[in-house]
Amino acid sequence: MAIRNFSQIQTESRTDYGDQGIDELDIQVEFITPEIAERMIEGMAANRKVSQHHTESMARAMRSGQWKEDAGDPIRLNSEGLMIDGQHRMWAIIESGRSFNFVVIRGVENHTQMILDTGRQRTLRDQLNIIGEVNSTALASSIGFYDGWLTDGMVLENARRSTHATIPESIALLEKHPELRDAVSQAEAIRRIVKGGTGRWAAIFLALNAIDETDTEAFFDQIKTGENLSAGSPVKALRKRLLDDAMTNRKLLARDYSALVFKTWNAYREGRKMTILGWRPGGASPEKYPTPV
Fold it and tell me: Structurally, what CATH architecture does the domain formed by 6-115 represent?
């Protein structure tokens, strides 16, 4: 398969490989199948530890049709034919069971590996900026937390989520749920008072708003203002707990934080009184993560 933009690859090669001439490199576009990917991994030079999350995100993109053949970096092999760059893509090929074209560069000097993958990756926030979204940092965080809610049924820290959405998956989620933009505004307003982070509050807002919009508006207003809350009000107990958390150095995890909010929401909707608010995620009698109703 012919390379259409050889000059671009030539420039990249001279930049990446220093004094190594372009004529010394064998540059081809090759169709990589899972079987070929297995052989490349078996014949691989020493490399960094494989990230399962990174591999799974690429495999999902390959299975869903979001993988772009012309947007990826080359697969690089040294003069002995051992792969020094591309292991995650090869593992993703194997996990997805799909085959794709890749630019393959053979004859790369081994010391080149030291400068690969040292640049700053484009983030979801960067991409949101590029497409003209406002408040991209808060929106990126909100997309991440809401993706975790939809996937796991919990509002979790990034490290605890079962999957990590790729940038195309995150943009697709925003397109499917444009209400995320309004959720950021709602979350910013409450975060300024009780803290807790915009992302987690946006996910909480959307989870509750899907149940009852009127109750969600009233619930959020009571948390923000603290006005007219009688003794035994579950919102009063929650507000005290969150304000206490805002003043401590050891903050509640997003999972525990959201569990307290959902537990309060259920009591608020049922008209139950509550003076002390707590949630036990572990120990002898752990509580199940509350499902808002």
Answer: Alpha-Beta Complex (3.90)
